[in-house]
Amino acid sequence: MIPKLYNDSTVRIEQYKTKTYRLDFDNRRIVGMVDGLDAAVQSVRKIIQTERYSERIYSGDYGIELERLIGASMPFVEANLEPTLTEALTPDDRFVAVHDMELTRQDVDALSVSCRIDTTSGEVSTSFGIGG
């Protein structure tokens, strides 16, 4: 959100527009534009794929901190994964809540994660892996 000052000294908050480029992740191309719920789905995927502080192009509040969970005990990961994902999504005001998180051990050092995310445009279901 961007605060705007007007002549009458009031501050109004404008929400960022959600229209953005549609990314074809499989072919690594930009293929048109996307808006609304589809833009939120794309944003979730980008945030989860970007380790926080790993790329100088992004601000310090963009991305997720999953590397600290790799090699940790399963109880630690279970206790910290939902708050970690929530913290990663919090800077974007389109995301409201993370819920129904399920963890499935894929291997000794790999997990599959699925959850639902409430957004201002509707609900997003997502899944991703950690480790492996």
Description of the molecule:
This protein is of the alpha+beta class and 132 residues long. 23% of the residues lie in helices and 39% in strands. The chain is built from 2 helices and 7 strands. Strands 5-6-7 form a 3-stranded antiparallel β-sheet. It has a two-stranded antiparallel ribbon with strand order 1-2. Strands 3-4 form a two-stranded antiparallel ribbon. The radius of gyration is 17 Å and the shape is globular.
Task: Describe the secondary structure blueprint for this structure.
Elements: E1 2-5, E2 11-14, E3 20-24, E4 29-34, H1 36-49, H2 74-89, E5 95-107, E6 110-119, E7 122-131
Antiparallel strand pairs: 1-2, 3-4, 5-6, 6-7
Brief write-up:
This protein has 132 residues and is of the alpha+beta class. The chain has helices spanning 36-49, 74-89; strands at 2-5, 11-14, 20-24, 29-34, 95-107, 110-119, 122-131. The strands form three sheets. Strands 5-6-7 form a three-stranded antiparallel sheet. Strands 1-2 form a two-stranded antiparallel sheet.
